[in-house]
Amino acid sequence: MIGSCVGLYFRSPWTVVLLGAALAHIGNRLDVLAEPIDVDAPDYGRPRRAPAAEREAEPARRALESHVAALFAALTHAGGELLPRQVRLFRHFFSHDLGYSESDLEFVRRALKEALAAPLPLDEAAAHCVEALGETERLLLFDSLVDVALSDGQLSAVERSVLERLAPLLQLDPRDVANVFLVNEGDPLEKAYRLLGVAPGTPTPEVKRAWRRMAALHHPDKVAHLGAAAVAAAEARFRELQAAWDEVLRARAG
Predict the structure, then answer these.
(1) N or C: which end of the chain has fewer CB within 10 A?
(2) What is the pLDDT of residues 165-210, one digit of tens each?
(3) Which of the following CATH numbers is that of domain 56-185: 3.30.590.10, 1.10.3680.10, 3.10.310.10, 1.10.10.10?
(4) What does the chain look like in DSSP terms, one character per residue?
(5) Are 95 and 140 in contact (CB under 8 A)?
(6) Domain ranges in the chain?
(7) Angle formed by the axes of helices 84-92 and 105-117, to 10°?
């Protein structure tokens, strides 16, 4: 209507057409803006990661995989032979401690294969891990490396030397490193007592109190605010404490 009037004023039929189309478009836009927003819709307010951001993250992930693989490769070379359990421990670190999906583990497998063929320098690999991983994740990594070294049932002098060199490179607290060695080495029952912080001759009620105190201290709920990596570390330690208590009970029942 308005377009027609303006067109007659300017005595041009094209003005009628163009103004009519323009006003119709504006009316449609206003109708869309007036529609109510369903805040309960699944996608409303949900952040979406742009494909470009995902592509930018890929080089960092691939670099981390290569440098962690270099540390695992250094230990397997020190041990002499790559064992299936060592490969599983390598994959477990990425899947359990870093939250890698099953599809991501294909890149992890390739990284280990390449590192075994041509490992990176230990200093360089450790420096990259310090930059890319938090303290809890680096301690979990070191614990996994000790497990790799013990896969054949014993820790050789060469493997211990690699681990002792690696610990300061990963900027780990010496007390945490000593505890990792204590927990992983020796007789299972001795390890259980050490983990619970009691002597083998401690009465059972006191051992139970020690177990409950340690379990409460390392309960995953206490570190939930620190993120997934901290929760994973707490869950792992919580399971170790439960296994230690079970080991003591089995030994004393027999």
Answers:
(1) C
(2) 999 999 999 988 887 887 676 677 877 887 788 888 899 999 999 9
(3) 1.10.3680.10
(4) -HHHHHHHHHT-HHHHHHHHHHHHHHHHHHHHHHSPP-TTSTTTT-----HHHHHHHHHHHHHHHHHHHHHHHHHHHHHSS--HHHHHHHHHIIIIIS---TTTHHHHHHHHHHHHHSPPPHHHHHHHHHHHS-HHHHHHHHHHHHHHHTTTSS--HHHHHHHHHHHHHTT--HHHHHHHHHHHSS-HHHHHHHHHT--TTS-HHHHHHHHHHHHHHT-GGGGGGG-HHHHHHHHHHHHHHHHHHHHHHHHHH-
(5) no
(6) 2-33, 56-185, 187-254
(7) 130
* Largest distance between two CA atoms of the chain: 109
Pick the CATH number of 187-254 from 1.10.287, 1.10.150, 2.40.50, 3.30.160: 1.10.287
- Write down the pLDDT at residue 228: 79
Instruction: Please write the tens of the pLDDT for every residue from 34-79.
Output: 444 333 434 333 344 445 555 556 888 999 999 999 999 998 888 7
CB atoms within 10 A of CB 232: 19
